[in-house]
């Protein structure tokens, strides 16, 4: 555990009527305590998960297009307005880490290819562009990243099959237990959310609040769908 508290410096906000403060979860944010090596952000589309994740990445000095402090390429870097208003509390402070969103992973892989000097040894000996999206994503984690770091991941499941999501759970376990890493992950995946000992923060209500796995819509809807597929489809597809 490194990052243990995220606070919004409300006194510095000039206009709560402008993005990102128009997003209810951000508007009501005061402080979030992180007590687990793995934290999930969960909530409906548009509930503010990426906004907060990008804000944290920005405040950490990571590239908001994807990457760490030393990956300052300029492709699709998005401006995070929120970062300026966040205070991050560390114990101890780490500067090592990485922000990754599945949709800009391709650009990140291109950047790594441009700066590669060791014949892709850091990524299992093969250019990330010669691996599939999911393979290259796991390759990065397995080969390149190591301990005492904070990883911020936006919907990593987009790259991963259900089987590979299970592999990713194992990587999470190893990296937190053996490598002393911390993860904050925005996800819609009921598989990833099932990781034990994670704190799940819901962005759906008036405030960001902790929620149990079984209370998430992702778990409930997926379970109901799988248990009652025909009835469910009838309900939503027939008038
Ligand atoms: N640059 C921006 N300017 C204005 N509004 C924005 C901007 N970026 C995002 N928004 C709005 O802020 C809200 C929160 O967006 P955000 O991307 O944080 O949601 P999310 O919870 O990550 O959603 P998803 O699950 O779909 O990725 C949305 O209503 C979105 O349209």
Automatic annotation (TrEMBL):
Residues 8-229 form the ABC transporter domain. It is found in: Cell membrane. Its main location: membrane. SMART domains: AAA (SM00382). It is a peripheral membrane protein. Keywords: ATP-binding, Cell membrane, Ion transport, Iron, Iron transport, Membrane, Nucleotide-binding, Transport. InterPro entries: AAA+_ATPase, ABC_transporter-like_ATP-bd, ATPase_AAA_core, P-loop_NTPase, Rad50/SbcC_AAA, Siderophore_ABC-ATPase. This is ATPase.
